[in-house]
Amino acid sequence: FPEFEPFDQATPRGEQPTGGGVMGIDMCQPVNKPQHNTSAYDITHLVIRRGQPFTVIVTFDRQLAESDDFQLEFLIGSNPSANKGSLVVVTFGNRPGSQWAGQIERMDGTAAVLMVTPAPDAIVGKYRTYVAIATGGGMQRTSRDTSTDLYLLFNAWCPDDTVFIPNESERSEYVLNDSGVIYQGAAGAVSHRTWMYGQFEKGVLDACIYILDASRMPIYDRGNIIKLIRIGSAMINAQDDNGVLVGNWSEDYSMGTAPTAWTGSVKILLQYANTGVPVCFAQCWVFAGVFNTFLRCLGIPARVISNFNSAHDNTGNLKTDLIFKTDGTPDRRNTRDSIWNYHCWNEVFILRPDLPSGLGGWQVVDATPQETSDGHFRCGPASVAAIKDGLICHPFDSGFVFAEVNSDVVFHKRDKYGTLTPYKVDKTHVGVSICTKSLGSTAPTDITYNYKYPEGSEEDERTMDRAEDYGCARDHSEVSEGSVTVVMITEEVYMGQDILLEVEFQNVSDLEKVVNALLSGSVIYYTGVIANDFKEEAFSVIIPGKKSEQRVHVCGTAQYMPHLGSQPSLHFMVTGETDTHSLSCMKVVNLKTPELTMAVSGFPRVQHPMLATVSFTNPFNFSLRDVYLSMEGSGLMECRSYSFRYALIEPFATVSWRENFSPRLHGDRFMVAVLYCPNMPQVTSSRRVF
């Protein structure tokens, strides 16, 4: 932005007048940064949090007298305005000033030690600093000095700030922790990956402010937490506003970086800020990881959430409709709804003065482009407390999030005339588990009951009825319970191993039942979309009355491996018919991948040389081609991210890669390494350094 210096009247641009000229301005970074919990930011300027005092020392060319009048001025944006809060005048003594409080702590000869307290609702961003001195001809201001610029952030430590979070351990985790764990996989087979948020790394704070500039968000709105979050949710994806990340849920990543190859947010944000061009490519956990960095960098308490069996309903109701043909096979052409193995979004901890009492606290925000909200691909903030009680009338996008965790799965059979007949309703499949990283630990914390009451409880029924009253229709199909049920069981399995599927039929009637069944197997994207079909097997089972029968099916490596590509998830479905009923069940198998070994050597001390070693052994009888290895550690590696490529890794061969680094920050630090190649899903490893 062009710089702006306010003058009451034109004055010569020469030496300062001798009657009280400013010799220097000291922003007192060694004192202010620790007090504001901003010492970790790798930046040459002062970083402070609003609603909390900071110290400035102004040195004059002589000792001030009682009659001397001066003020500090803080300007933000290209057209600062006092009535919009972007031109802040801080006065000292009895003269009225702005909402920022000023106080002279003491005089040390010609140096004035000043205490300034920004308003708890002040605009967030980068300010320019000036000192203005009253002279006979008006006010004489200091010239532009970039070293006195300061960054003002939200303040989770200030009770008057809308992001205040009272628990110190939660502030440490959700604002100050620059690495985290994102949970993936499938319900019952949860996997995880370490993600480097890196909100304190060099250039990241400027990149986050650049995102707000690129959105053309008015400067005077940047102190409003709700408006800023909604802008951020829209700008992290590039769907309709040239934002940060391009989503890609295909197998073709030739024009960019595969989503599974990223190690963290830093490289993505710096690339976007340096080029102004959206970065390719992302899927939901990448959107959530980068959004989490954006939020924590600006001082907003935030965490990444994983919802397993997450419904994506396209019709705005509480029904996820799965349609099958008369022979029991899925009717993909007419099925519009989908169930994701998991979906990642974010939560922010903020006050909601726009909502009734009790609906503040954790709020859902989602940057993955799924549906539009007020014309942009974004979601939230939606109150978690409101979602739990079915109060989906409140802004923003509460109904969409409510459906993601509460939809009923309705199985329909489509006859030759196109008529749909429901034959099964599963009320427990969607939102079966919702988790996030624990405080101070890499273990998951189950927060399912933050979002919903126990299935079938009286509170749950009242919640569903209330949501329907607010316009979210639920399923009321009259489906009779069949006498035969079916379930599938399988153990965890590594990629390249045979899969044993135990299919168990239970007959609750007194009569013998014959089931004509079909077992189908597909490779799926984690969004539930079919990538490749690889198995279809018809079989029959005779089940005596009041008995159960098991069938064990073997899915060999040779059946699924040629179709796998870079997807680690297999979807198995059993559909069947008795003389009176249809039945079905489904199971997602998330294949475990080979291990990546990571070791760190050297004395763990700040600015002391250390060595990281990553090694990998190809366990398969086929070669891995175009292998990409990357390594990152927030506060550890100055270059933020290292990468290396292998054109070929032969079967059973071992490769090793070493990098030197010198830690920048003390405390517990993590490093993460990722191996990616087109014919194998992600392989990751992380290591604690301190």
From TrEMBL:
GO terms for biological process: blood coagulation, fibrin clot formation; nervous system development. The keyword Calcium applies. It comes from the Eukaryota. The active site is at C284, H343, D366. Residues 1-24 are annotated as: Disordered. Its EC number is 2.3.2.13. The keyword Transferase applies. It holds the Pfam family Transglut_core. InterPro entries: Ig-like_fold (IPR013783), Ig_E-set (IPR014756), Papain-like_cys_pep_sf (IPR038765), Transglutaminase (IPR050779), Transglutaminase-like (IPR002931), Transglutaminase-like_sf (IPR036985), Transglutaminase_animal (IPR023608), Transglutaminase_C (IPR008958). Keywords: Acyltransferase, Calcium, Metal-binding, Transferase. Its cofactor is Ca(2+). Residues 276-369 form the Transglutaminase-like domain. GO terms for molecular function: metal ion binding; protein-glutamine gamma-glutamyltransferase activity. Belongs to the transglutaminase superfamily. Transglutaminase family. This is protein-glutamine gamma-glutamyltransferase. The lineage of its organism: Eukaryota, Metazoa, Chordata, Craniata, Vertebrata.
